[in-house]
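Changelog note: in this version the structure field was regenerated for every chain. One regenerated record is shown below for reference.
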Amino acid sequence: MKNPRICKNGNCPLDYPHDHVRAGDIPQWMPTIDDPAQPARWPDRLQWERPDRRSNANGFFKFGWFASHSGFQLPWKIDFDRFTDEDWESIAALINGKFAFRSVYGIPRGGEPLARALDKYVTPGYPILIVDDMLTTGRSFIHARAALGNPEDVFGVTVCARGPVPDWVWPILTVNEWAQSRATGLG
């Protein structure tokens, strides 16, 4: 086999990169591209390139350099300011389906719309809930807990976590390490 990535007969029906071999060229035990146990190939491009700012001008993801609440310069952000009241109500219903709480505290600015949406689900006799839209370092949650007097019966929920999460905070979505920037020290 000279180059298994080149289809010699020119009429291969597959339109994705694959190992094209003729019958009998590989032993029966050797994995092929169609074998689900075969790991995916590593991406050809391993360095992060900043996407074009205009590529998602009206979307929830914004690209450029943004200062986070924790002081990091971030190459992208999720624009939670674009969330509508219905979006926050949907997330609140998701949280209410999982947790019960006696009061809710929204971390200033990011967590306030979610806290307003969660107010109608307050039930006496349960822990205090602290919420935020994005968790980068977790310090905002720690400061919010301290501002409440460090109660024992408190837990947090964040819509998205892009960094290490304290063990008492539950993220709905978690950003994988490969999507982080080396500039922040988070990935």
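Spot check on this record: DSSP finds three helices and six strands in the chain. The first strand starts at residue 61 and ends at 67.
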